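Hi again,

Forgot to attach this to my earlier email, sorry! This is the prediction with S-adenosylmethionine bound. I've pasted everything inline since the attachment limit keeps bouncing my files.
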Amino acid sequence: MDETIPYDKDANFQFDSKAYLQRYTHPIEALGIQVQFLECWHQFYRDYHQDFDESSSTMLEFGGGPTLWSLISVAPNVSSITFSDYAETNRSEIEIWRDNESGCHDWKPYVEYIVRTLEGNQDPNAVDLRVQELRRKLQNIIFCDAHSEKPLGEMQQKFDVIHTNLCLEIVCEDKDAFYAVFSKFHQYLKPRGYLLCLAALEGSWYLCWNGGGQKWHQLYLQSEDLDTAMARSGFTILYTRIVHPASTNLMSATKKWRFIVARKKD
Ligand SMILES: C[S@@+](CC[C@H](N)C(=O)[O-])C[C@H]1O[C@@H](n2cnc3c(N)ncnc32)[C@H](O)[C@@H]1O
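Structure tokens for the complex follow:
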């Protein structure tokens, strides 16, 4: 078993967004596992796009950190995106990107990879158009707290799809807390809405980036724990993929990742 780092809820307010974003500055060819995550989101929207009406469908990113990588495949399929995170520094990174302010993170290599390589779109303007579309559709950037009875505060909206990536295993102290968050997602999904979840397995710490810093708590999960979480909270798993690290993983003790597409039971 890996070394265990105590969970500290308040430490998340000091999330080092700029350091974390260094994970997302590597050339796309060097992304390794990250490319497989991009494929997961891309394949979902390729295979299920008929279930989304671009003029009315809505999407929630829960615990997005300072990142936009899972939203690039979403943008053409929905009318608006609500982005949420606990840490103000992370929400601020997303705001400065949306408003195209100086110092914002450069997500263009990710957009290029998804649009050109995964979607096969060679239109010379396609990449810039996707960036503009994502900026336009990124309409709400809000606080969330997985442990609150109302994780999105007063927001009552129901979404067609929710993404949560590499988040709940970080913010939950134990498995009961982890299972409880999935049940809370129900209130934010339309009937038969989709939940896309990417979780790190079999590790109990992670680093903000591979240059170092403190080790952060990560709940030690096994693949079956995600089955339990989905079953207990009324989700049917439609698709799942295990992603193995291509090489030594310097940023966490994680042994593998699991991507799940689940659907809310009526
Ligand atoms: C490892 S980061 C994951 C970021 C991003 N989803 C990604 O794919 O890289 C974990 C995120 O959980 C957020 N977080 C911390 N406490 C939280 C809470 N109580 N509720 C929801 N999110 C929380 C942090 O601010 C951080 O952005």
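Residues 12, 15, 63-65, 67, 85-87, 90, 144-147, 165-167, 170-171 surround S-adenosylmethionine (CB under 6 Å). Strands lie at 58-62, 80-85, 138-143, 159-165, 189-201, 205-209, 212-217, 235-243, 256-264.

That should be everything now.

G.
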